[in-house]
Amino acid sequence: MQNNSDIIRLTDEIARLSAALEEVNFECQRLEIVNSNLDFQLKSANRELKQNIALLEALEEENKKLRKSLVNADGVCT
């Protein structure tokens, strides 16, 4: 009868491990979705950051031109 109880124990262990594997696979799929969403958010944030940098650089250039025109107009930069 030892063989029969070993088979039952092994069958139960296989069922437990199979259920655990299913849980791991589900969690892996969930994490892939989370990762994909985070990747999308990161790319969006990077695009927005690049736009903001370009805008700041344009404003800096405009500021330099305005200062230069003030110096030329007044002879003094304020």
Q: Summarize the amount of helix as a percent range.
A: over 70%
Per DSSP, what share of the residues sits in E-state strands of 2 or more residues?
Answer: under 5%
Task: Give the end-to-end Cα distance, rounded to a whole number of Å.
Answer: 100 Å
- Helix and strand pattern: H
Number of strands: 0
For this structure, the quaternary state is single chain
What structural class do you assign from the helix and strand content? mainly alpha
Q: What is the typical, i.e. mean, pLDDT?
A: 93
Shape: rod-shaped
Flag low-confidence runs.
Answer: none
Task: List the total number of helices.
Answer: 1
Instruction: Describe the main β-sheet briefly.
Output: none
Q: Compute the gyration radius: what is it?
A: 33 Å
